[in-house]
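Hello,

Our lab assistant flagged a job as stuck in the queue for most of the afternoon. It eventually completed. Since we weren't sure the result was trustworthy after the delay, we are filing this so someone can double-check. Below is the sequence as submitted and the structure that was eventually returned. Let us know if re-running is recommended.
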Amino acid sequence: MASGVPPLLRALREAGIPTTAIVVPELEAVKAAHAAGIAGVELYTGGIVDLPPGERAAAAERLGDAGRLAAKLRLGLVLGGGLGYSTLPELLGAVAAAERVCVGRACLARAGLVGLDRAVRDLRALVA
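-- returned structure --
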């Protein structure tokens, strides 16, 4: 067990309760989560989605590197933070190993325009 692991995290792990941490998509953050015994990471994409296309491509590459490391370390892998219908395909393409995506606000906003059923169907089509 890594030194400096918070007592709550230690207690959860000892009770068999898996934990997930939201981390910046950087290799060192993924390594730190693994060293702390965390079962999964949500790579925070909020800092990427608003970047200009040229900068977003480089950031998506770093996101992919972090995702590949998380998969190699057998961490659960989620993408989340500011994802929307227009940014999801690019960023999900960079992290093929992602098990889930968090796109709640985008889906609910779209549901206000087209209805929840269609918003969810459209979202599912993007991740299929």
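-- support follow-up --
The delay was a queue issue, not a problem with the job. The result is valid. The chain is about 55% helix and 15% strand. The helical segments are 7-14, 27-35, 46-49, 53-72, 88-94, 104-114, 116-127.
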